[in-house]
Amino acid sequence: MQVELLAKLRSVNPVVMNISNFVTVQDVANGINAIGASPIMSEEIKEAAEMVQMSAAVVLNLGAFTDEALGHIRQTGLLANQLHKPLIVDPVAVGAVAYRKQTVADLFNVFHPDIIRGNAGEIAALADVAWQSKGVDAGEGHADPVAIVKKAAQKYQTIIVMTGETDYISDGKQVVTVENNTPLFQLHVGSGDMLSSIIGAFAGVTSDYFEAAQTAAVVFAVAGEQVADQLPTELPGTFAIKLLDQLHLVTPETVAAKGRIKQLEMD
Ligand SMILES: Nc1ncnc2c1ncn2[C@@H]1O[C@H](COP(=O)(O)OP(=O)(O)O)[C@@H](O)[C@H]1O
Ligand SMILES: Cc1ncsc1CCOP(=O)(O)O
Ligand SMILES: [Mg+2]
Fold first, then answer.
1. Measuring CA to CA, which residue among 36, 75, 22 is closest to residue 204?
2. Ligand 1 atom closest to Cα of 117?
3. What is the DSSP code string of 155-205?
4. Domains in the chain and their CATH numbers?
5. In the sheet that 166-170 helps form, which strands lie side by side, from edge to edge?
6. What residues have CB less than 8 Å from 13, skipping those under 6 apart?
7. Residues lining ligand 2, judged by CB closer than 6 Å?
8. CB within 5 A of ion ligand 3: which residues?
9. What does each C-alpha distance from 108 to 32, 74, 219 come to in angstroms?
10. Tens place of pLDDT for every residue, the chain, 267 residues?
């Protein structure tokens, strides 16, 4: 983890382009803004080249795509590769909907994601590991998370962020974990979408995407912990609002002090 990336992000204020979904688009835009980056959302393929050119990172969220949106997603992913912009993909519910699994497989034959962020159900599906996904949520499974995250990273030659109570982050060889002590994240639809785009914000200020992924995951976990520490009981609505506050307020010093990150495996 490179906690100094947080200060760099806030000083650079990178533009992060998103093709998002109608469910969480405002959460995602506000999360990017709160951490210190500059969000822009797009639904028009005709502006894709200009948008990608002006952005520091591109995030594709597959939460509620239509056939028309698919053309835009495909073109934007291809342009991100061609213009050497970090490309982050959030394969929402890819483990629960066969059509989405096929669609994601087709997309990954067109462009290469630099980072994929999903829950265990989604990453297990990408790794072809048995798991019982549940809609957009992780669901249940018994497979070893380290094996899942490494297999997915090796299969797609990319960095995988598999989130949950413990986040597992791998480049196919190394595995890092981030402990997240805030179950309230599960009560906020959009937590994962927000993190995927905040990963994009960090990837927009460094060429080390493995570091960007780890640092984003720790910063997000610590921001959530800062909120939970102040809540008297489980208040998902209050958590969601205060999460934006803490994404804005969390300092590199607090992240360094409270972040629980561990290197599990080296090369
Ligand atoms: N059981 C949990 N306890 C604490 N944090 C969690 C838990 N599940 C998920 N998180 C956190 O919530 C955020 C979103 O992850 P996740 O819920 O896995 O994504 P999604 O919303 O796409 O399903 C991540 O920061 C993750 O660490
Ligand atoms: C509920 C839902 N349905 C399609 S996209 C979406 C949002 C999923 O957000 P997250 O994966 O961050 O929970
Ligand atoms: Mg999700």
1. 36
2. 22
3. HHTSEEEEESSEEEEESSS-EEEEE---GGGGGSTTHHHHHHHHHHHHHTT
4. 4-263 (3.40.1190.20)
5. 38-41, 15-19, 57-61, 87-90, 115-119, 159-163, 166-170, 175-179, 261-265
6. 36, 37, 38
7. 21, 23-24, 63-64, 92, 136, 189-193
8. 92, 192
9. 25, 9, 28
10. 889 999 999 999 999 999 999 999 999 999 999 999 999 999 999 999 999 999 999 999 999 999 999 999 999 999 999 999 999 999 999 999 999 999 999 999 999 999 999 999 999 999 999 999 999 999 999 999 999 999 999 999 999 999 999 999 999 999 999 999 999 999 999 999 999 999 999 999 999 999 999 999 999 999 999 999 999 899 999 999 999 999 999 999 999 999 999 999 776
The residue whose C-alpha atom lies closest to atom 9 belonging to ligand 2 is 190
Distance CA 116, CA 153 (A): 9
Rg of the Cα atoms in the chain: 17
Q: Strand, helix or coil at 46?
A: helix
Q: Whose CA is nearest to atom 25 of ligand 1?
A: 221
Q: How far is the CA of 226 from the centre of ligand 2 (A)?
A: 23
